[in-house]
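From the methods appendix. Each design record in this collection lists the tokenized structure first, followed by the designed amino acid sequence. Records were kept in a plain field format so they could be parsed without special tools. The example shown here is representative of the layout used throughout.

RECORD:
FOLD TOKENS (573 positions):
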């Protein structure tokens, strides 16, 4: 038991089993709702709880993460498939094929250790993207709670206009049921958070629907749910359709990577155990393959269910296995009960579930920290709503790359020189930087720029610190800063020390910029020396033939104390 499910002992067995029952109660109504969001039959949501869950549990290194579809993934499945013009029975096959492609991409990233690709989904992108999907889901659930049917092929704003136009056709009985369901869900969340409120609300709503014959009064119900175990089949999809699914499958894989790895690491750090990100990606990939082959849709990490299990004290994957077993039994003997679940109650449950995905606190925090990244998050949200999920995500990527280039093109460039005293002066080309004249990293006091023996001024030597890789986006910044230094130099200046610690890499354009700087310094009769050079960068500079006749020192102190003496260049490395 210990080797199969790490963390499970006879002392916590009862607690883990009880947590599994609670997880089942939470997962069944949510997955039914998510299947409907994805445009799939309820069984697709229940199938996702069985084989994909078992496969994930057997392969993952995480003791707590729950693998399951979520609202964001379901909305992306629906939007991407309707965008391809998929309809009818093809929807199930295409969703299965999409999950298989997603699984293959995740497995490939695990084998090739490409999990770092998920880092390109920055927090602002994720927050904005998921919030956009959540708004789409929320709008569809509001329509369900009002008993209004909206065209599935419309984008968010046209769909919102259509909903407003049809408010007069709302079902009074549906509105009352949805309102009562929402009130009950809010009360459970606030006062009884450990109780499966969603299950209780759905059971109560179902009983009232049958007792009062509410279906005859305009309240729609889930309808017949196919009984029996999951059906296994390879999706019958043409090559052109497989290719058309690649972009959306990649998007699903990236989101699963980013959220899955983040959630797994977070809980492992909090609870004191180790995880293997590549192994977890393989587990998600295998789970998606199992989902696609069992007529379900894409799965990832469920943040809400993982948090719920953590609050109940669960520290193993046993609850997920209990959930899988319970869902299997439900499909065998309990589907008749599911048929009478009223749609307004399902809409209320799903709407409450996606409220947290709107990310309002995250938007506020991002705005407080960075206006530009807040704009990226908002642009991503609007891109999803106006352009659709995939094009919205692509737009956010472009904005993030622009932000990256903007930051890399404006690095801090510090020039340390001495005045008439022994205190060093730091001038910087970055206005936002703080002018600190006493201490900086690597330059702790005046003796760094002065001869410790005489404590005299060293106005004949300056230090330039470039805090970024030297490449095409900032090469001109480096050249201009050196040219400015030469133009404004002290007449006594005879040497410039280039502190290379912040320069982690150099490309061809950066090498040309360094060559231009060398030429400018030579023309001004100022010697260049380098200090704190990284071994990897040394190899690059040697390849570019940029180290010839350039003195190298292990520290800035040694460079400064050597270069201010006529005999010091002979001591260079």
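DESIGN:
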């Amino acid at each position: 038991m210990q080797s199969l499910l790490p963390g499970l002992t006879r002392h916590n067995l009862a607690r883990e089993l009880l947590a599994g029952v609670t997880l089942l109660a939470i997962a069944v109504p949510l997955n039914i709702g998510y299947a409907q969001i994805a445009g799939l039959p309820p069984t697709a949501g229940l199938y996702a709880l069985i084989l994909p869950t078992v496969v994930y549990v057997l392969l993952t290194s995480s003791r707590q993460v729950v693998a399951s579809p979520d609202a964001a993934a379901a909305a992306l499945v629906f939007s991407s498939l309707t965008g391809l013009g998929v309809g009818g029975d093809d929807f199930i096959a295409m969703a299965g094929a999409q999950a298989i492609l997603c699984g293959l991409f995740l497995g490939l990233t695990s084998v090739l250790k490409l999990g770092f690709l998920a880092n390109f989904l920055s927090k602002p992108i994720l927050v904005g993207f998921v919030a956009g999907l959540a708004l789409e889901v929320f709008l569809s659930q509001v329509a369900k709670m009002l008993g209004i049917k909206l065209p599935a092929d419309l984008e968010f704003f046209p769909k919102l206009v259509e909903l407003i136009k049809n408010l007069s056709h709302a079902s009074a009985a549906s509105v009352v049921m949805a309102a009562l369901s929402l009130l009950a869900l809010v009360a459970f969340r606030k006062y009884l958070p450990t109780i499966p409120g969603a299950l209780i609300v759905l059971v109560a709503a179902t009983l009232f629907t049958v007792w009062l014959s509410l279906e005859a009064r305009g309240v729609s119900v889930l309808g017949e749910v196919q009984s029996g175990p999951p059906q296994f089949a390879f999706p019958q999809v043409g090559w052109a359709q497989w290719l058309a699914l690649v972009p959306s499958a990649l998007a699903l894989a990236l989101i699963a990577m980013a959220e899955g790895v983040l959630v797994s690491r977070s809980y492992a750090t909090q609870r004191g155990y180790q995880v293997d990100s590549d192994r977890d990606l393989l587990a998600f990939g295998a789970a998606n393959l199992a989902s696609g082959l069992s007529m379900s849709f894409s799965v990832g990490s469920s943040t809400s269910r993982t948090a719920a299990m953590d609050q109940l004290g669960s520290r193993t994957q046993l609850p997920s296995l209990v959930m899988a077993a319970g869902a299997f039994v439900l499909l065998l003997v309990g589907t008749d009960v599911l048929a009478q679940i009223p749609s307004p109650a399902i809409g209320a449950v799903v709407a409450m579930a996606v409220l947290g995905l709107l990310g309002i606190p995250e938007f506020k925090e991002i705005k407080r920290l960075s206006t530009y990244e807040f704009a990226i998050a908002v642009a991503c949200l609007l891109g999803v709503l106006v352009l659709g999920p995939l094009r919205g995500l692509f737009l956010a990527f472009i904005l993030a790359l622009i932000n990256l280039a903007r930051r890399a093109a404006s690095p801090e460039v510090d020039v340390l020189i001495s005045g008439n005293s022994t205190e060093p002066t730091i001038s910087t080309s970055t206005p936002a930087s703080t002018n600190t004249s006493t201490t900086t990293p690597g330059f702790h006091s005046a003796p760094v720029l002065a001869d410790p023996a005489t404590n005299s001024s060293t106005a004949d030597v300056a230090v330039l610190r470039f805090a970024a890789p030297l490449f095409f986006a900032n090469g001109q910044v480096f050249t201009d800063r050196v040219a400015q230094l030469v133009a404004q130099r002290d007449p006594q200046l005879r040497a410039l020390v280039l502190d290379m610690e912040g320069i982690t890499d150099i490309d061809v354009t950066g090498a040309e910029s360094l060559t231009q700087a060398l030429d400018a310094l030579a023309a001004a009769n100022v010697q260049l020396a380098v200090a704190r050079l990284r071994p990897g960068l040394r190899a690059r500079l040697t390849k570019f033939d940029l180290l010839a006749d350039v003195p190298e020192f292990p520290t800035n102190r040694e460079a400064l104390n050597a270069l201010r003496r006529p005999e010091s260049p002979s001591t260079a490395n």
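APPENDIX NOTE: The two ends are 60 Å apart (CA to CA).
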